[in-house]
């Protein structure tokens, strides 16, 4: 798809855009051996990520078994996945017996994780974010593994720095970020021990019309609520572009594990973004506090050198989001809490 609409009319069109494979992804799957497994498929990212893989394989004319694993999958979700050519296996990934029962698969995407509410159940947070990755690294030692991590493992940095680099030393604030760093260490340990090819995706932040930092800001502007300026700057990437980058990272796994920042090239101002939403919504934003000198920011230069710039820029996503909010598009009701500075989600 070379042209994009001025507006996104409905969820069907949105899902189509989110799962539209880029031109480089199709030949990649034509030359990639093995089936594909998505662990933790029913979250915000899994459905469109797996659907993009399925569509790319179909267009490449290759047959692969595409499997999604989830603890809970509704009947409606089952139907959607089946239509997309994705097989679903349900079970608890923390159950080592269930994990061992999963089919040997050459290409594994690890999406499971716990963020929101993590401070209320710290033992479960560490189990999902650190213990489970250790189990997966052991179970799928002979696979290629692409595992989601987070930019939250970085310290807060000045906007003029351009964002944290993959070579920067992590300073994980709060137990959520610490447990995610633990996830990275467990996959890194497995990669070193078994020679497993691994890529760790430090994502910060993926957005689409139903959730994300832009939705959070747009809703506050629309509802005349104060926009918190404490975390005054942020990165975003359109989820469709993120899906493309993550799938293509299969060709860049390595041992020791490779770390890859995935986000857009722009560093956006919360204040300026709120003012832009105000113009589009005919609203005057209300602000609270003031910008700190630092923010949670990632530098995606390495990913952009590998995959090119994202297809969708920040300005277009802001316009799409404003229109979606104005016209009452469905939201997931899951705030990102991007304004949190102490790591307590």
Order of secondary-structure elements: HHEHEHEHEHEHEEHEEEHEEHEHH
Low-confidence stretches: none
The global form is: globular
The number of distinct β-strands equals 13
Helix content: 25-40%
Q: Give the C-alpha Rg.
A: 19 Å
**What's the story with the biggest beta sheet?**
7 strands, parallel
Q: Provide the structure class.
A: alpha/beta
Approximate strand percentage:
5-15%
What spatial order of strands do you see in the largest sheet? 3-2-1-4-5-6-11
Intertermini distance: 37 Å
- Overall pLDDT score: 95
Number of helical segments?
12
Describe the structure.
The chain is α/β, with parallel strands linked by helices. 39% of the residues lie in helices and 14% in strands. It contains 12 helices and 13 strands. The chain has helices spanning 11-18, 25-31, 46-60, 75-83, 96-101, 122-139, 174-194, 213-222, 239-248, 270-281, 301-307, 314-326; strands at residues 36-39, 66-70, 87-90, 107-110, 144-150, 197-203, 206-207, 226-228, 233-234, 237-238, 258-262, 268-269, 286-288. Helix 2 (25-31) crosses helix 3 (46-60) and helix 6 (122-139) runs parallel beside helix 7. It is globular, with a radius of gyration of 19 Å. The relative contact order is 0.15. The mean pLDDT is 95.
């Amino acid at each position: 798809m070379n042209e994009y609409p001025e507006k996104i009319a409905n969820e069907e069109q949105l899902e189509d855009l989110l799962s539209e494979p880029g031109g480089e992804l199709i030949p990649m799957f034509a030359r990639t051996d093995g089936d594909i497994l998505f662990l933790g498929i029913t979250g915000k990212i899994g459905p469109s990520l797996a659907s993009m893989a399925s569509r790319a394989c179909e267009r490449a004319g290759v047959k692969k078994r595409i499997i999604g694993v989830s603890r809970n999958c509704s009947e409606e979700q089952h139907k959607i996945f089946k239509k997309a050519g994705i097989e679903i296996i349900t079970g608890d990934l923390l159950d080592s017996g269930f994990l061992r029962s999963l089919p040997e698969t050459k290409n594994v995407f690890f999406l499971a994780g716990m963020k929101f509410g993590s401070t209320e159940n710290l033992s479960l947070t560490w189990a999902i974010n650190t213990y489970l990755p250790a189990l997966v690294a052991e179970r799928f030692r002979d696979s290629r593994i692409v595992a989601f991590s987070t930019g939250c493992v970085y310290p807060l940095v000045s906007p003029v720095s351009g964002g944290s680099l993959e070579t920067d030393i992590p300073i994980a604030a709060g137990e959520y970020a610490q447990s995610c760093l633990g996830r990275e260490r467990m996959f890194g340990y497995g990669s070193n021990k078994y020679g497993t090819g691994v890529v760790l995706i430090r994502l910060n932040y993926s957005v689409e019309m139903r959730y994300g930092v832009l939705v959070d800001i747009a809703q506050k502007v629309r509802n005349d609520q104060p926009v918190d300026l404490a975390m005054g700057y942020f990165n975003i990437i359109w989820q469709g572009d993120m899906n493309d980058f993550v799938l293509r990272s299969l060709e860049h796994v390595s041992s020791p594990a490779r770390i890859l920042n995935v986000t857009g090239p722009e560093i956006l101002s919360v204040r300026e973004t709120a003012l832009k939403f105000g113009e589009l919504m005919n609203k005057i934003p209300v602000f609270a506090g003031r910008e700190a000198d630092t923010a949670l920011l990632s530098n995606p230069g390495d990913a952009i050198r590998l995959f090119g710039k994202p297809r969708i820029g920040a300005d277009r996503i802001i316009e799409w989001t404003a229109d979606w909010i104005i016209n009452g598009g469905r939201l997931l009701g899951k705030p990102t809490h991007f304004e949190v500075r102490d790591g307590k989600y």
